[in-house]
């Protein structure tokens, strides 16, 4: 029969069959397009992972569409090599969210998609995860007491008390200590614990810890969200640390996740904070399987948790910024804790802001979203004030006896300080040492750039062109505006009061630890920063040592500012903040206020009253006034007025084009090209001249940038969509490393 059919018909039938099977595949390559491949008889479905030939390599891709046409000659298309059958497929919701982000952040969709997957799913092999276990007390374990464990078995005791809070996963145990297995094994021998595979879902043997009766404002907040359960509505929960925000979250989950499929996404800014929150959620909501997603998880566990979310088995997904892209089929609510936190912003690859993406996600899924903070981002606060978000406030600490600390400024212009420390602060620390109480010295050691400041009249060199502040470049003897690129010579005399003693702010605080050691040779001093905590477990060991009073003085950066409760810590000293008060980075004072609110919350958390001493040359600055009365709204109001006058966000929208190369000429050529393109393609967007980056040279690279500013988000988006493909295609781009940062947080 076949032989009778003319060849031409046969071939067209054949072609037609083939044409229905053109797979549109997302690949991890820096081109913003999909790639067409033939199905090759595999009968692939949308959302499946496949392996395809790409040049000389084999790479993983995800099928995001199936079509019957291609822009390329069909006979030139290659077939896929392999499909991973039996793996759950990715859904259209996830594609849609990533597509939106790829467009908004000007990043190739394929790269965005692949980067959002657990590592194991980016490999050209079937993805399997080792079974993960959680551990919980058996009935015998519940009867046991910690006294039955010899005191020298410190780790066993620690894990025992952790188990008393509820079941623990392997990753939580790892957070406690990398040697956890031996302790668990010892309990197993005694018959105190049993292991459960996490896949089976999380059922605690412990009864749920009953919630405290909520106060009026908490109840109101919970009810507001519950009433909007079936549609998109953004809420801002504003309340200082300890005002009971987490209780509100837990009540919302309790009341909202009642049907057996419903799921919630909870975003937290820092990995360090997840274990605590995880333990609290588990003990309150033991009936809801919970998984965490963050970069400290092993690959296997991350894959497993991700899949538990994707399959709907995990009911609460708690994670850091990347978790915002996790497939969650029955999403009912999104919670974003500490929404103002800078770590929600991704600083390389696709430079998304997880809080903003969460907002888009809630809107696409038509579910409510609640953002919580003691010091909301000004953008968020502005939206709450205009009614775009519903503002819910918790005005008091939930537990009455924990009083607010006493906050005072030490005027450094009136006190002779030695190596950065004033006698008032030194005496206060000595007093604590004598009483056996702890102190924390908080250093704000971000790379703030120096500005030119008059100590007599507080004049600061401003930019005449754009009302930003000029940055001192001592080596070149220049002042430079990092906003618009304006440059001028350093002035020697204050133009406002005639003072001839102008000097740049911001001195190093490196020597602080040595100074303290000399002052208090008998004190046990511990530094907490990225260096001292880079080793695994290091931070936990330090925290434990603080709790058991093995440390007298802590020196810390922002790492210490949040989340940790130290009952014996009664003094917080803050030094070196003035460079942030007058930073050319217009967000610096907003950040400083948030940090000081948080760090002052560390003092006097238990029954002992706390004191906060701030060394500054500007004790009457409105930031400190607002801080003393813990009045975020007042300070936010001042900042918003400043931003409006200067036309900074949230009153305008920004995008930053960055480029770097070992050869500055290449950077210049590329940025000039981009600048001309941008100037030519939009009148609504103000494109500033190319200029050197704040850190002009970093790791042997010369760095530059072009800032774009618009009063409408849409205009900026249109411009970026028009120029980014041209930039990608240009020969000049090949000579530099470049990126687009939409809504940049730092520059
Ligand atoms: P936040 O998340 O705002 O820092 P939390 O929810 O952690 O505040 O509450 C701080 C402390 O107060 C916690 O120990 C919490 O259990 C307790 N707490 C919160 N709300 C209440 C309440 N309504 N009654 C009693 N204790 C409460
Ligand atoms: Zn002056
Ligand atoms: Zn300027």
Task: Describe the SSE topology.
Elements: H1 7-19, E1 22-27, E2 35-38, E3 49-54, E4 57-67, E5 82-83, H2 92-104, H3 109-115, E6 133-137, H4 139-143, H5 154-164, E7 168-169, H6 170-176, H7 180-190, E8 193-197, H8 216-227, E9 233-239, H9 245-256, E10 263-267, H10 274-284, E11 290-293, H11 299-311, E12 316-319, E13 331-336, H12 354-365, E14 368-373, H13 378-385, E15 390-394, E16 406-411, H14 423-435, E17 438-443, E18 452-453, E19 470-473, E20 478-481, E21 487-489, E22 503-504, H15 512-519, E23 525-528, H16 538-547, E24 553-556, E25 569-575, H17 578-581, H18 588-600, E26 611-616, H19 622-628, H20 632-646, E27 653-661, H21 664-681, E28 685-687, E29 691-698, E30 701-710, H22 713-729, E31 737-742
Parallel strand pairs: 9-14, 9-15, 10-12, 10-13, 11-12, 13-14, 16-26, 17-24, 17-25, 23-24, 25-26
Antiparallel strand pairs: 1-2, 1-4, 3-4, 3-5, 6-7, 6-8, 18-22, 19-20, 20-21, 27-30, 27-31, 28-30, 29-30
Helix pairs in contact: 8-9, 19-20, 21-22
The structure holds adenosine-5'-diphosphate and zinc ion (2 copies).
Residues 212-215, 218, 239, 241-247, 398-399 line the site of adenosine-5'-diphosphate.
Report what the structure shows.
The longest helix has 18 residues, at 664-681. Helix 8 (216-227) runs parallel beside helix 9 (245-256), helix 19 packs antiparallel against helix 20 (632-646) and helix 21 crosses helix 22. The mean pLDDT is 87. The strands form 7 sheets. The protein has a 7-stranded parallel sheet with strand order 11-12-10-13-14-9-15, with helices on both faces. The protein has a 6-stranded parallel sheet with strand order 16-26-25-17-24-23, sandwiched between helices. The protein has 747 residues and is α/β, with parallel strands linked by helices. The protein folds into 5 domains: 18-122, GIY-YIG endonuclease (3-Layer(aba) Sandwich), CATH 3.40.1440; 133-197, no CATH class; 216-303 and 314-394, 3-Layer(aba) Sandwich (Rossmann fold); 406-449 and 506-642, P-loop containing nucleotide triphosphate hydrolases (Rossmann fold); 653-742, Ribosomal protein S10 (Alpha-Beta Plaits, 2-Layer Sandwich). 44% of the residues are buried. 32% of the residues lie in helices and 22% in strands. The structure holds adenosine-5'-diphosphate and zinc ion (2 copies). Adenosine-5'-diphosphate (ADP) binds next to helix 9. One zinc ion binds at residues 454, 456-457, 459, 494, 496-497, 499.
């Amino acid at each position: 029969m076949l032989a009778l059919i003319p060849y031409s018909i046969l071939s067209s039938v054949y072609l037609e069959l083939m044409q229905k099977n053109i797979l549109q595949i997302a690949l991890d390559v820096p081109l913003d397009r999909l790639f067409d491949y033939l199905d090759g008889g595999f009968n692939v479905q949308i959302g499946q992972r496949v392996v395809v030939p790409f040049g000389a390599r084999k790479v993983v891709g995800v099928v995001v569409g199936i079509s019957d046409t291609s822009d390329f000659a069909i006979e030139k298309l290659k077939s896929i090599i392999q499909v991973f059958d039996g793996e759950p497929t990715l859904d259209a919701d996830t594609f849609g969210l990533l597509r939106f982000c790829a467009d908004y952040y000007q990043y190739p969709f394929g790269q965005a998609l692949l980067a959002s997957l657990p590592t194991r799913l980016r490999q050209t092999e079937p993805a399997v995860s080792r079974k993960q276990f959680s551990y919980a007390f058996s009935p015998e374990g519940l009867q046991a007491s910690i006294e039955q464990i010899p005191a020298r078995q410190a780790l066993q005791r620690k894990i025992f008390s952790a188990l008393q809070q509820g079941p623990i996963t392997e990753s939580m145990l790892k957070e406690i200590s990398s040697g956890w297995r031996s302790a668990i094994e010892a309990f197993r021998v005694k018959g105190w614990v049993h292991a459960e595979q996490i896949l089976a879902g999380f059922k605690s043997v412990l009864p749920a810890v009953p919630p405290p009766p909520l106060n009026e404002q908490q109840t109101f907040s919970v009810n507001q969200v519950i009433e909007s359960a079936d549609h998109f509505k953004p809420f801002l929960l504003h309340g200082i640390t300890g005002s009971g925000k987490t209780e509100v979250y837990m009540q919302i989950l309790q009341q909202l996740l009642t049907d057996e499929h419903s799921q919630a996404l909870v975003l937290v800014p820092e990995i360090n904070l997840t274990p605590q929150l995880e333990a609290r959620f588990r003990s309150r909501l033991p009936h809801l399987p919970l998984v965490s997603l963050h970069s400290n998880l092993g690959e296997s566990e991350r894959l497993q948790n991700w899949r538990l979310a994707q399959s709907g088995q995990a009911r609460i997904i708690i994670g850091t910024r990347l978790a915002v892209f996790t497939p969650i089929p029955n999403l009912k609510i999104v919670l974003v804790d500490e929404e103002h936190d800078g770590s929600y912003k991704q600083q390389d690859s696709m430079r998304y802001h997880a809080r903003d993406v969460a907002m888009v996600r809630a809107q696409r899924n038509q579910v409510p979203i609640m953002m919580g903070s003691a010091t909301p981002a000004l953008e968020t606060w502005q939206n709450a004030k205009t009614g775009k978000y519903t503002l819910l406030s918790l005005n008091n600490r939930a537990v009455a006896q924990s009083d607010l600390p006493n906050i005072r400024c030490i005027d450094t212009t009136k006190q002779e300080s030695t190596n950065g420390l004033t006698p008032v602060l030194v005496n206060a620390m000595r007093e604590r040492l004598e009483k056996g109480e702890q102190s924390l010295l908080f250093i704000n050691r971000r790379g703030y750039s120096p500005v030119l400041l008059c100590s007599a009249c507080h004049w600061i060199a401003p930019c005449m062109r754009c009302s930003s502040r000029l940055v001192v470049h001592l080596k070149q003897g220049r002042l430079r505006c990092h906003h618009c690129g304006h440059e001028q010579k350093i002035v020697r005399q204050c133009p406002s009061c005639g003072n001839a003693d102008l000097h740049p702010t911001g001195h190093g605080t490196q020597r602080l630890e040595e100074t303290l050691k000399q002052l208090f040779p008998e004190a046990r001093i511990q530094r907490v920063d990225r260096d001292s905590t880079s080793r695994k477990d290091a931070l936990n060991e330090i925290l434990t040592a603080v709790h058991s009073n093995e440390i007298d003085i802590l020196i810390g950066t922002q790492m210490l500012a949040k989340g940790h409760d130290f009952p014996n810590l009664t003094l917080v000293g803050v030094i070196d903040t003035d460079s942030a008060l007058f930073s050319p980075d217009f967000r610096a004072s907003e950040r400083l206020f948030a940090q000081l609110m948080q760090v002052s919350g560390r003092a006097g958390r238990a029954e002992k009253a706390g004191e906060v001493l701030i060394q500054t040359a500007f004790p009457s600055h409105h930031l400190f006034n607002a801080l003393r009365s813990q009045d975020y709204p007042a300070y936010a109001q001042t900042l918003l007025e400043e931003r409006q006058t200067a036309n900074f966000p949230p009153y305008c929208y920004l995008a930053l084009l960055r480029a770097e190369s070992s050869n500055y000429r290449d950077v210049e050529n590329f940025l000039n090209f981009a600048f001309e393109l941008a100037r030519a393609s939009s009148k609504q967007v103000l494109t500033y001249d190319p200029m050197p980056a704040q850190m002009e040279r970093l790791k042997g690279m010369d760095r530059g940038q072009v800032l774009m500013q618009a009063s409408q988000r849409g205009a900026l988006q249109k411009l970026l969509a028009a120029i980014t493909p041209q930039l990608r295609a240009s020969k000049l781009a090949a000579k530099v490393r470049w990126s687009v940062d939409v809504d940049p947080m730092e520059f």
